[in-house]
Amino acid sequence: MNARISYRESAVRGATPVQLVIALYEQVLDDLRRALAAFEKKDIEDRTRSINHALVVIGQLQASLNMTRGGNVAQNLQRFYNMVRTGLLQAHIQQSVLELKEQIAHVMLVHDAWVEVEQTGIDGGKTDRRESARQEKDRKDNETKESRPAPAQDSSLSFAEWDA
Questions:
Q1: Residue 164 three-state SS
Q2: Are 58 and 22 in contact (CB under 8 A)?
Q3: What DSSP state is assigned to residue 56?
Q4: What is the residue range of 12's domain?
Q5: What is the distance between the alpha carbons of residues 18 and 51, in angstroms, rounded to a whole number?
Q6: Which of 7, 4, 39, 17 is nearest to 129 (CA)?
Q7: pTM of the prediction?
Q8: Any idea what the CATH number is for the domain that residue 34 is in?
Q9: Which of 85, 20, 21 is nearest to 54 (CA)?
């Protein structure tokens, strides 16, 4: 379990905002699949824990919406999150595998849309700006390295003295 947490933490540190949203959707899908398996095993405790965690993650996604800057997209996502939360509660209360499967399908559709956004770079240019900044930093680092004098082949300077 620690390796899984470490992997996720390292993936989150370098992620773009869109990649973070995708990771949250993947967590919701993992939780809902665990809940589905718990339904089939009649494990009420695991089903409850999995659905509750999915609801918490959906709450995080919902809380991250910027309703003023997001416009219609944010409003549609707000409605979507409310619909999924309601559907998950109904699935849990009514013990409906069918309702849970429907919510999984809905979340999967929106997840796939976010993956497409990430792959096509339709995120307001944030990814492109980060990449440009990274390339500029790499270019400057290379210029700095090239401007250093190369050590003479028969020089008696140590590496530490030359690198200073």
A1: coil
A2: no
A3: H
A4: 2-146
A5: 24
A6: 17
A7: 0.69
A8: 1.20.120.340
A9: 85
